[in-house]
Design a protein that fits this description.
By secondary structure, this protein is of the alpha+beta class. It has six helices and seven strands, in the order ββαβββαααββαα. 24% of the residues lie in helices and 12% in strands. The chain has a five-stranded mixed sheet with strand order 2-1-5-3-4, sandwiched between helices. Strands 6-7 form a two-stranded antiparallel ribbon. It is globular, with a radius of gyration of 19 Å. The N and C termini lie far apart (42 Å).
């Protein structure tokens, strides 16, 4: 067993678990987009970032790919982490503003507008479809092509793949395929109407600069009539 500290709580987990798995095992939610159970971790969306260490040497890392280590200090909802997640969500909204998945994540993290030029590229290169096709469907009909700004997903040589069985698994996991009608104006890019949101339970952090990470919030549940 490995002992580490998550949000000020000393916990023990089995060797081989990631920080994401360890946090979720103890009921500390971390948002993810490119991560899905049954598929290998990829760390493409960066939404699952957490803060590791203390003081000026603390760093941000993707929790889905970072292994739980002995003595590791983790904070899943510090001010620095939340700022990074909001920035990531704004960038994702610029690429795929009509995605229901991304909109709900943005609304849940109090992102009310995105400041970047909307490009409507749709694909955010999360790699979910590629991993689903290879690891669950055993087809490898699609994959990544090129590098840098030319990176995209498709079939080899842009030709129909005989390995494709038209199963629809790629569309099932794709955040860009789960669209909702919305405005294209950046100021109205996040609807939030379908999200089940609750008001924040704390105005000031009891853990230095840690924000509330409980889901659902225990204090909010107690306050309900």
């Amino acid at each position: 067993m490995i002992t580490l500290t998550i949000n000020g709580l000393a916990v023990s987990v089995e060797e081989g678990m990631t920080v994401l798995e360890a946090a979720r095992f103890y009921g500390m939610p971390i948002p993810t987009l490119c991560h899905k159970e049954g598929l290998s971790p990829y760390g493409a969306c960066r939404l699952c970032v957490v803060e590791l260490g203390e003081g000026p040497r603390a760093k941000l890392a993707t929790s889905c790919t970072y292994p739980a280590e002995e003595g590791l200090i983790v904070r899943t909802a510090s001010e620095r982490v939340l700022r990074a997640r909001k920035m990531i969500l704004e960038l994702l909204l610029a690429s795929c503003p009509q995605s229901k998945t991304i909109q709900d994540l943005a609304a849940a993290h109090d992102v009310r507008q995105q400041r970047f030029r909307q490009e409507h590229e749709d694909c955010i290169l999360c790699g979910l479809c590629v991993r689903m096709c290879e690891e669950q469907m055993m087809a490898k009909a699609i994959g990544f092509r090129h590098r840098g700004e030319k990176r995209s997903i498709g079939t080899p040589f842009d030709k129909h793949s005989e390995a494709c069985r038209l199963c629809g698994g790629c569309m099932y996991v794709c955040p860009a395929c789960q669209l909702r009608c919305t405005y294209t104006d950046p100021d109205k890019a996040i609807c939030g109407g379908c999200a089940n949101l609750a008001p924040p339970c704390v105005d000031k952090d009891p853990f230095d600069d840690m924000m509330c990470y409980m889901e659902p919030c225990v204090a909010c549940e107690i306050k309900k009539p």
